Amino acid sequence: MLSKKNIYLALFIIFIAFASNAEACSGQNRYWVAADDGNEKLWHDNANWSCSSGGSGGASAPNSTNRVAIFNGGSTVDAKLGQNANKIKKLKIYNGYSGTINLNGKNLPSKQGFLVNDGTISVNGGLLQGWGWTTIQYGGEVNASGSGSRIKIGHNLSIKSGGTLTAPDGGNDRFIVRGGFNIHSGGTFNHNNGTVTLPTKWGNTSSGKPSARIYIEDGPGAGRDFYNLRKTGRKNIYLGNDIEIKNNLSIIGNGYIYAQDLGGTNYDITIGGNWYQNKNTSFQARSGKVIFNGSSAQTIDSRSNFNTLRIYNSDVSLTRAATVTGTLRIFSGATLDINGYNLTAGTLNNTGNLQLKGTETLTITTKDTDSGTITYDGSATGLKYGNTYYNLAINSPSGTMTLNADLDVNGSLTIANGTLNTGNNDISVAGNWTNSGSFVSGTGKVTFDGTSDIVTGGTGDTHDFYDVTLGGTSASQSINAIAIDNDFEITSSGTWYTNCLAMTVTGTTTTGSGSIATTLSPTVTFSPANSATGVAAGSNLTLTFNTAVRNTDDSALSDSNVDSLITLKETNSSGADIAFDATINSDKTMITINPDSDFSSLQSVYVAIGNTVENTCGTAISAASATFTAADTAAPTLTWSPANSATAVAVDSNITLTFNEAVRNIDDSALSDSNVDSLITLKATNSSGADIAFDATIDSDKEVITINPTSDFESEQVIYVAIGATVEDSSGNANTSSSITFTAIDSITPSLTFSPVNSATNVANDSNITITFSEAIRNTDDSALTDSNIDSLITLKETNSSGSDIAFDATIDSDKKIITINPDSDFSSEQVIYVAIGTTVEDDANNAISASSATFTAREIGVADTTAPTITFNPTNSATGVAKDSNITLTFSEAVRNINNTEITNSNVDSLITLKLTNSSGNDVPFDATIDSAKSVITINPSSDFSSEQIIYVAIGASVEDEYDNAISASSITFTAVDSVSPTLTFDPVDLENPVPVADNITITFNEAIRNTDNTALTSTNVDSLITLKEDNENGSDIAFNATIDSDKKVITINPDSNLSSEQTVYVAIGATVEDDTNNAITASSITFVAADSTAPNLDFTPADSATGIAVNSDITIAFDEAIRNIDNSSLTDSNVDSLITLKTTNSSGADIAFDAVIDNSKQLITIAPSSDFSSEQVVYVAIGATVEDDSDNAISASSITFTAADSTAPTVAFVPPDASNCVPISSNVSLTFSEAVRNPDDSAITDSNVGDLITLEYTSDNSPVAFTATIDSDKKVITINPDSDFVSGQVVNVAIESVEDSSDNAMSATSGTFCVVDSTPPVLTFNPSDSSTMVAEDTDVTLTFDEEIRLIDNSALNNTNVDSLITLKENDANGSDIAFDATIDSDNKVITLDLVSDLSSNQIVYVAIGATVEDSYNNAISAASATFTTGDSLPPTVVIEAVITASIATDSDITFTFSEAVRNLDDSELTNANVGSLITLKDTDANGTDLAFSATINSAKTVITIDPTSNFTSQQVVYAAIGATVEDYADNVIPASSKTFIAEYLATTLTNPLDEKDVIGLIESQIETAQRLIQHSSKPVLKRMEFLRRHNDQNNLSNQGIKLNFVNSTLTQMSNALNLPVFLNATADLFGNEWAVWSEGSITVGETDSTSASSLKEIKSSGITLGADKIVDQNQIYGVAIRIEDNDSDVGSSGTTLDTDSLSLSLYGTFPFSEKTYIDSTLGVGILETDLTRKHDSGTLTGTRKGEQVFGTLLYGAEFDNDVTFSPYGRIDAGYTKLKSYSDSGTVAAIKYNEQKIKAARASIGLLIDHEITTPEATYMPNARIEYGRDMVDASDAVLSYNVYPNTDYTFNIDREENDNFRIGFGTDILVEEGWILSADFEREQVESSSYENSINLGASFQPNPDTEYSFSIIGGSSSARQFGIDYDKSLSDDWTLNASLESSKSSNSGYNNTIGFSTRMSF
User: What Å distances lie between residue 1154 and 1151, 1157, 1167, 1179, 1201, CA to CA?
Assistant: First the structure.
């Protein structure tokens, strides 16, 4: 037995061995090596990690001491975090890793960041945190979508080509990048929600600019834009390109965004949401633009200046004052509302709308008065923008804009709402005048000095003008009459058009050289204009009239009749018609023509209108037309020379690209010789070939590009040339990418071989000589070589070229490649023979051969040869620098053979050769050897190139001989391959290393000695020039250094002149500038690393230093820009943070202030909560010492601030009049002005409605109250008290106010003051008739009424005797004739009455005046006063017929006839409700239409008749309303007959609860029922199939094949074709073999669901087909798959509301034996739905499409008891889940949005299936029957819907959980006929309690007369209006080929009959 001591010793030895092994791996990289065994692999499992790539597992999981965690191709298995990972040094994913690292809600921290070149990191609710540089590229992906995912990057983020980053959703802390944010070309950044937060940590460069940047290389675009962007912290960041932010930009803290790169290039920011900025300098715009282009409301809260601000959105508003130092540009359709805040801008360029309140300060150096609109929506006196405008709009619902100077409007003036008061100033308008609000003319003049359309809005005090001048071309009245209270004048030659509307001028009318016309002759302006060119192909056309127009039959123009007025043709009036749809605007001034399709390129278009419309006065336009030309939309075409596939192209050819029109770059810049090269690709062979150098030029017309290759092409070289879609024509049409290939001409001279070869010996003396050419040859005159002319080309001599001729005869073979020379006699023994051919032949490309010759020695047969052949090796022995792709040749002095006398051939020559590495003992080198036809040269071709500097040994044994059996001696050589490997290098630090000590040197170590590429030696004096050392990257600032190289020339050491900066990114590189001693240059290489953090954390105090007015209950925060800890490295906690903080009064010597401090989880925010509130205006000192540091041990400097708490001083008040002041006028108001804003003591605001409760106003004499109204200003500092009437003169008034407080709750005590009042106001005089009155009765008296008693100014009393002398009464004016009168004064001495001696005349102007001749009892004399009035006229009343809106009315509208004055019947009798109806005509369509019943009433003023139709109009009904000349005013002026036509509309305001519509409820219920039904229909055939298989388990052929699928329903046909089902089914016999069976089942279903009190009756029609394949494992065990396609139609109610649902489902099924008698059937399926819905509504037809998804399953437990008849009882559970997606229908105002709805359904059933088999000689019958009871449970979510026009009003249809009893009965049979028929039919009825039922009939048949032939037919129900019948015939012609023929007939109510005969063949593999 082992002793305990020995056991401990053994354990200790094992531990030491383990530790030694672990230590051997310690500090090394970790490689993921998880085995792919199907199990989940966890990160922290050591079995998944190794110290080497692909090595054995068991190394510890990576941590911060290991170098790097590496995922590569060694294992591509997914990794999952089961717990938070230890902080690792770095994560690298590259070299073929294709798996996913799933964080699984856990944290993965990496000290040096992440390199993701391959695979995927799925953050999946976890935290991915890296402190170093993170790079994603080459197909790598980081996906942080999903709930709770976070990414924190402590350095730069780079997304490079092929990389994808999907950003997290959620708040500001979900995605944090503390360095630069870089998206390079080809990188993808998906940011569809959430926020990128940039708390930048880098400092500035030496130039003071930021070193971190946002760089989007390709600029804004999909996959490159931000959603929300948030910049925080103290450090800055700059832009490297334009950026776009789809939602909000927030800039928090002192660090700024710098909109300029380090080179000075400015960039733009485009933002779709809000701009928020909390520091004045946190945005440096430089010269960049900020663009607001959102689609919903945007706000701007910027404390920094913008340089250029562009507004594209219609709703952008300021939330604080803004400054634009450059240009503010508001684009057409855009609005900038400055919301009352101040705006400063250098230049305003406005084609949109600038909206002002009128009270702000507006400072714009250069204003835009030539375009755009300025809108005022407040109240003010004086216009802040100035007094010159283009368009001016007043839109102040309850405000008034009052002019304080003359106004000039160069465009149109619109009073949309509120009031414009001239303040008695003049207005000039060059454009239109529209008044929908109020206009107070005063005594101001309005001058129309252009071409104006004038809509006054009516007449009266808020619409009339005082003076009007026409100084322009024309003015035209529209819609309303015009009233001018004083003078009208035309100062130009222009024309005033009344357009048949009233024009009343009270004063003088002066037309001068102008005129007043009844009508403005209508004219039309075409857009595009006549002869216009370059018109966009998709343009609409407009015809704009200068006045409203109608049809010439006086009927209104509408969208339905305007088409007939327009001619639109190609080219001219004779051209082909162009289809279009035309509409007309509500003002009837513009027709818009929308062509059905775009114009073709450069198409000439003719548009015309005849004299078919007129103005309201009946003046028709003149026929007019225009012709214009559509834009060039055709891309340039090009012609290549040489053409594509050309051959025999001259090697020195240029290449030309000829365009059919001039071209330019796609950025619109001109093409030139200097930039055209970049457009062209020129390569060898194809697009992947090597580049061919060239120079390209373009001609002056910019149509021909000429490519001049730098050198000639090679012989027969294939050339690829291409141009991308990189040029365009002048219309911006880009070319299509194009490329060609062509082949250069053959330029290589044919080569030739003599046989015997040159210097050959022992040539048989009877030998022929052959000259073999490498290609066919001909004579150099291009004639063919023949046996008759070949002799002349050959020289055959003795010895040499000077020898005697040898006679011969020569021939040439048919291929013209071999010349055979046959000497006339044998050569003599040892004779030397010379044979030659001159430059006399050539190939078919005219390449002539060079003259060639050979000499050989003949030997007479029989004469002995005893000399062995000699060998010459190439390369030679000991050769060096041999090319690594060289072949080796062994050349023999004569022909050789094997020593066994057999021939050496290419197939046996390999065995003769030895080829090895190094020497004869080295490893074999694979090769292939050949021997030439002369058997004298062996060529050895190694299988692969030699390695660099490899020693090669080659040998041949004594294994060959000449033909005289002279064997060679064994021979060998060695040679050395050239050195071809470039030196390798290693950087220290390594690439992306972080952190690197700031004092470290950098080394570059090479694996061999190096030198300069010019072969000179490297020294420490010249090595500096090879090195690049920069900040950030290759474009950064240089870092000074000194470099040295060691004596071995292998190590370069770079010593920076000074330490690196804290966290500085350093770029170091060396170019391809050094080489080894065999001229192998290195590849240029670079790295980037990050210096260690040596910067202490920055901190921000809140409140800021020196802040004032800080709430006394404020907390104090200290925010750090990075996490901190105690300087002893311990963690900061809430329990120890207090000790770090000093909080005192006044300063560091003040008294301590008690507090409690806490620190947040990120360790970046300390919150200090004082134990009690500060005292009023207390100075507070807060400090923190140098007591905390970051995780790099950088301690902060001690810091402190002071701030001042809010005040506690109560407000003071000053009274006006002041207390005990001198007496003030009795009409004075009283004001109370506070020293600061005040509120009620309960903190509620003081408003105009409650301020009176605080005030007491009374007389001190008797304390009687004075009634008043009080208001308070918007600043809550001034209360104004306005007495309801003047004070009593001589009284002392007491004014008092209750206690109020300031915003700091400092209450002011109640206080009061007194003042005295005195009357200093003269009496107020009122004339009756009033000044400017009209329609005054001719017998009127005139009264002058004073508001107080009067007397003569000499203090004497007035009486009836002396009063006459005070009055002037004249005609017209003060200079007119006297009018006789008698005056009296009443007993109160307040009313003077003038009794005219005779009545005034009609329309007489009367002037009445009184001088300053009377006074009140306080000696206040009146001012002289006068009035002018006009007696009544004889004009008849006017009538306006109106309803809801001008041109249309609601379907339930009343119609009103509004008269300008009271009216009565023509017999002077009163109009009453009883008789007014007889005056009115109300008809359908027009005056000839059907009468519409109505009741009519008239108001008590007899000015408005109201028609109430008995029933509502129908939607779009045309209604005609009229009144004849049947009423008059009370002056007997009869109205003219009047009429108007309206179009009835179903308005949104008439919509009711949609759930009150039974069809809507029916639609909702029907969708739920359809979802259940489709699940049942998908499950039933599968269950029945399993029943069928159990009935037929002894059959061999269980397939039901030959089904042809072709549905009338297009959707089902598309789904069928997409799945290729017909081919699939018709090939099943070959597809599945004998083990599988294929089956199908079609079904037609009809039924209905009864109506209820809330829902309509629902009729159901359904047709579908199920296709399946299954395999029987044994007698009772089956598994299979089925697909079902179904169309379900439901008719809801009787109005035409329908659902058409197409479904596709996939089911897996199986039946498994449970015991001998029992079994389990199960199914599991999924499905998709698409429903087309049609809903009928009073407003019209609405349609929509809804999609859905389903999951369902069935579990059945059954048994079979087989005793002749089979009884199969069973129990079944069915379950299904359906999600119906949200959707909206459309079509009318009643369109409804339906929210997403979820339906859960289940059914528990028990049943009995009975089947039996009856066999007869003719057939086998298998009848079956079923009875089943089920309990349905349906639980659907409530249906929530809302009208599209009222999206915020939801209606909820509560759907209760339903439980219904369900009964199912069915019967059917299968018939197996011996001749090969299988027939099946069954009927089923399913009854749900007593409310609904379904009947189903299923039919199927197939016929297989023999194994090779099959017939089938099918009956398929489509939609309710379609049926289909089909027959198929299949014939197997062989094992592989099958013939198919089919006949198909279908009937559709839409398309009639359709018969199809098809033939096809197929081959099975």
Answer: 10, 10, 14, 15, 17
Specify whether the CB–CB gap between 1951 and 1922 falls below 8 A.
no
Q: Are strands 127-130 and 927-931 parallel, antiparallel or unpaired?
A: unpaired
Token pair for 1321: 């106001």
CA 1091 – CA 1001 distance, rounded (Å): 11
Dihedral sign computed on CA atoms, order 1349, 1350, 1354, 1360: negative
pTM of the shown model: 0.44
Q: Is the dihedral of CA 566, 567, 571, 572 positive or negative?
A: negative
Closest CA to 1178 of 1140, 1143, 1138, 1141: 1143
CA angle 100, 105, 106 (to 5 degrees): 90
Q: Is the pLDDT of residue 1609 over 70?
A: no
Q: Are 1833 and 1802 in contact (CB under 8 A)?
A: yes
Supply the Cα-derived Rg of the chain in whole angstroms. Answer: 52
Q: What is the pLDDT of residues 145-199, one digit of tens each?
A: 988 999 999 889 999 999 999 999 988 889 999 989 999 999 999 999 999 999 8
- CB 1188 within 8 Å of CB 1088: no
Residue 1037 has which token pair? 């600032």
pLDDT at 1955 over 50: no
Of 1931, 1926, 1930, the residue nearest 1943 (C-alpha): 1926
Is residue 929 within 8 Å of residue 909, measured between CB atoms?
Answer: yes
Give tens-digit pLDDT for 408-460: 999 999 999 999 999 999 999 999 999 999 999 999 999 999 999 999 989 98
**Binning pLDDT at 50, 70 and 90, where does residue 1175 land?**
confident
User: Which of 1401, 1403, 1465 has its CA nearest to residue 1435?
Assistant: 1403
Instruction: Specify the 3-state DSSP secondary structure of 1617.
Output: helix
Residue 234 β-bridge partners: none
CA of residue 730 relative to chain centroid, distance: 29
Give residue-wise pLDDT tens across range 530-540.
999 989 889 99
- Residue 777 pLDDT grade (very low, low, confident, very high; cuts 50, 70, 90): very high
- Distance from C-alpha of 1158 to C-alpha of 1168, rounded to nearest angstrom: 7
Residue 1942's DSSP bridge partners are 1928, 1958
User: Measured in whole angstroms, how far is the alpha carbon of residue 929 from the centre of its chain?
Assistant: 65
Name the strand (E) or helix (H) holding 17.
helix 4-25
- What is the SS3 assignment for 831? coil
- Pair of tokens at residue 1336: 């005054």
Q: Tell me if the bond preceding 1329 is cis, omega within 30° of 0.
A: yes
Phi, psi values for residue 1479, rounded to 5°: -85, -15
The per-residue DSSP string of 419-473 comes to EEE-TT--EEESS-EEESSEEE-TT-EEEE-SEEEEE--SSSTTT-BSEEEE-SS
Nearest in space to 1838 (alpha carbons), one of 1828, 1826, 1825, 1851? 1851
Burial of residue 1738, with CB atoms counted within 10 A of its CB: 0-12 exposed, 13-18 middle, 19 or more buried: middle
**Positive or negative torsion for Cα 545, 547, 550, 553:** negative
pLDDT, position 1078: 86
DSSP 3-state of 792: helix
Q: Which of 908, 905, 915 is nearest to 873 (CA)?
A: 915
Task: Provide long-range contacts, Cβ within 8 A and 24+ apart, for 1483-1487.
Answer: 1483/1519, 1483/1520, 1483/1522, 1484/1517, 1484/1518, 1484/1519, 1484/1520, 1485/1518, 1485/1520, 1486/555, 1486/1518, 1486/1520, 1486/1541, 1487/1520, 1487/1522, 1487/1539
Q: How far apart (Å, rounded) are the C-alpha atoms in residues 1102 and 1100?
A: 7
pLDDT reported for residue 15: 42
Q: Are 991 and 1088 in contact (CB under 8 A)?
A: yes
